[in-house]
Structure prediction request, 324 residues.
Amino acid sequence: MPISSILSPTATELARHVADGLHRTPKALSSMYFYDDAGSRLFQQIMDLPEYYPTRAEFAIFREHGAAIAAALSPAGGGDFALVELGAGDGAKTKLLLRELLAAGTPFTYAPVDISAGAMTGLVAALKQELPALNVAPVVEDYATALTQLRTRPGSKAVLFLGSNIGNFGPAERLDFLRQLAAPLAPADRLLIGFDLQKDPRRIRAAYDDAQGVTAAFNLNLLTRLNRELGADFDLAHWQHYTDYNPLNGAVRSFLVSTRAQQVRVEALDETFDFAAWEVIHTENSYKFTLPQIEALAAEAGLRVVEYFTDAATDFADVVLAAR
Prediction:
């Protein structure tokens, strides 16, 4: 029986991804599938961890430079525009920017995009209570669909991609993604992208392997999702989280490690996969950047750096970009 005849469209896409990823050498699954409702809740916890500096650093940028960022994203000639945020999550940092725009009397519509319906429901409810004057047009979609819709959205726009999510793409995927973001931009449109900057390698590694084990639970939740949605039988007692950081290329890599030789059945695929003891599934990359690397990447993608904002420790940069 074909996969598409027994699964929802979302589950069908996930099943095809798993079939492809578990046949690779080494095996790999995309971090985009971390963010079911449980994964989104776990990531909210990660952002509050003492080891996880990126969220605090980006908050500091928005608190210190919020008015300047709002001005940099608003159309120079005034007028209504759409503020589109890819991967909105709980919108905590973005609310600082939204308040600046509302205080300035800037006419705009906030269009948060998130793959998690649960996260979006919570965000919209919070915005209605905290910022009742805000015009919100939520979109529950993946990035690919949102980018397609972005191409057809009329009028001026500013696109947000915060939280160092750009680092989750490998070099080729990153360039392709940025070119997709650049394609629909008119000269007056803007992008605001968060980049985690290179720093003490020990601090970086600790941010992805916290002492409380929340990041481990976040990684392992991917297997729980496969069990629930695809009828897999991963035994989480025989899997563990592992991460490393390579300061030569700025890459944090996260893995799920099979602690024994085992077989895993995936009913939706009608297939059983063999895992050797200590074999890994590569689940995530998180690249760290330098400012010269960001400028070179932007140029290659057909973008230019308009302005960048950093926290006092230069741990993080929010970079305003425009089409060249």
User: Anything to note?
Assistant: Residues 1-7 have pLDDT under 50 and may be disordered. The longest helix spans residues 53-73. The first strand starts at residue 27 and ends at 28.
